[in-house]
Amino acid sequence: MSVPMTRSAVVYSGGVTHDFVTTSGALTAILAADGWSVTVTESASELVARLPGASLAVFNTLRWTMRRPERYAAQAAAHGFCTPLELKDALSTHLAAGRGLLAMHTATLCFDDWDEWPRMLGACWDWDRSYHPPVGSMTVEVSRSSHELVADLDDFSTDDEAYAALAVATDVVPLASTVVGGRRQPLAWIREIGGGRVAHDALGHHGRSYEAATHRELVRRLARWATRAQHTGTPSP
Length: 237
What we know:
By secondary structure, this protein is α/β, with parallel strands linked by helices.
């Protein structure tokens, strides 16, 4: 049965060291199948222009000043990103209006010149301690008792990049995690802030991440939760 197009999302995509064309395409497919009208853009100005008409802002991007770490300094002139004031204002307004934000994978590394960004997400990458093992097979454990959103989802395996030792706020509601270096690392969580809702999914390094049906279902549910849309259905095959 087809799903009516009643919700709109804008995906902010692009950046270095990742195949954002493929991963943003996978996100678009997941959302479109669930009835979302989706626009993908790599332009900050287009994102700002589209946010007032979007119920969901999806950040699948890697944009930061590149001042740290030193190995990226040579690329800063070409690829370094300073967060525009217009983007800061637009996203703050978006959340204050009660709309949703879905932050994917590299989002915790973004906008290092904007202190409010990690406060929105509930986490940030700490260049002094955060790291990830090589991309590979990993087991994701679902925190079924933490929230009804994931109460009926099973643990799953995927091929991905597991972020570890992020600086995570204490008020996030954990939904999924994995073990890296003998320590449990949060991968997905939700939180409410500024009148809006923020959902974070640290998975999604490349297209293979979305081959896991339960991961696709988790993304679908995070998007619905962030916009206060009623969760319906069961995990897709």
